Amino acid sequence: MTTALLVAVLAAGGTALVLQRGPLRLVIGFVLLGHVGTVLVLASGGGDRRGVPLLGQGPEDVPLGDPLPQAFVLTAVVIAFAITVHLLGVLRAEESAAEDDEEDADVEVEQERRARSRRAEQGADGPSRAREVAADEAGTPAPGDDGTGAS
């Protein structure tokens, strides 16, 4: 009865965490669901109704426990650990990418500020200078300029 209750509590907690927002909660939810599988497989092995699955251990009239569920549990623990490590790695990479995006945004803001200050400095030279710069960019002579380049 306690095993069934434990499976129910772990499954409910794991499912609730998986359905919530937040990547760390997702990872913890998967860990709990991995434990659900482990406890469920151990309970199905009937270890409480049988003896130790080793020869020469325990009373002779008790049937030996099945070692196969224990082997499955060992495999499930290794797989759950691998999934947990992978999810934590993905979580760390996601946070690192978010930090890089923030740094890129800061650099873009700084570049835009510098460009605005350059434009303001060019505008301080007077409207004639701004017209000359615009004319140079367009490849046409500025007003009052004959296009020969001589002053």
Q: Your description of this structure?
A:
By secondary structure, the chain is an all-alpha fold. It has a single domain, classed as Helix Hairpins. It contains four helices and no strands. It has helices at residues 2-19, 23-44, 68-124, 127-138. Helix 1 packs antiparallel against helix 2. The longest helix is centred in the middle third of the chain and has 57 residues, at 68-124.
- From the 3D structure, determine the CATH topology: Helix Hairpins
Total number of distinct structural domains: 1
**How is the biggest beta sheet arranged?**
none
Rg from alpha-carbon coordinates: 36 Å
| Fraction of residues in helix | over 70%
Order of helices and strands: HHHH
CATH class: Mainly Alpha
How far apart lie the N and C ends?
101 Å
Percent of residues in beta strands: under 5%
The computed structural class is mainly alpha
